[in-house]
What does this fold into?
Amino acid sequence: DGGITQSPKYLFRKEGQNVTLSCEQNLNHDAMYWYRQDPGQGLRLIYYSQIVNDFQKGDIAEGYSVSREKKESFPLTVTSAQKNPTAFYLCASSIGGQYGYTFGSGTRLTVV
Amino acid sequence: SQQGEEDPQALSIQEGENATMNCSYKTSINNLQWYRQNSGRGLVHLILIRSNEREKHSGRLRVTLDTSKKSSSLLITASRAADTASYFCAPVTNTPLVFGKGTRLSVIA
It folds into this structure.
């Protein structure tokens, strides 16, 4: 079955560490997205990529970095520059921006 | 990016009742989508309504769109406990989707 897989489900980070969240899709979708969700809040866009080897900043890109070397993969690195990284991170993909998004099941990141 | 504003923020109903939630947005759109999010999970795409459509049905879901009022509504008929979730609308323009706080629906058995 086609889908989008995020790993790990739970991640703990010490202060000052970089961590990388994985997002893989086998839907042959061109576009991929990363969102952050805080408790009781909406989803805020971190980065998105519409094609391999290209990506754009979203509304809250500071302290995050991404790469898009393969169509299937769009990893997100949360750097030590992100001052408040504890949140629920969601990855999504779509055929194109006008169509429905398929979401992964999320990674919950906690700073300890 | 443009986000929709869902109303009410929270809704509690008995099983079997209908649930209606509303969405308002600010600019012209290409289409509008509705999503559901169960607690601690990713969003699931429910339905897409194009800007030239006024109403669309999918199973127990009925969506309306009024582009003159820049608003949409999602009706869930004969609700079930399994419908308990947060519901988000997403107005679609030429930029990536953004999502507001959603409507938290609780269906009590």
About this structure: The radius of gyration of chain A is 13 Å.
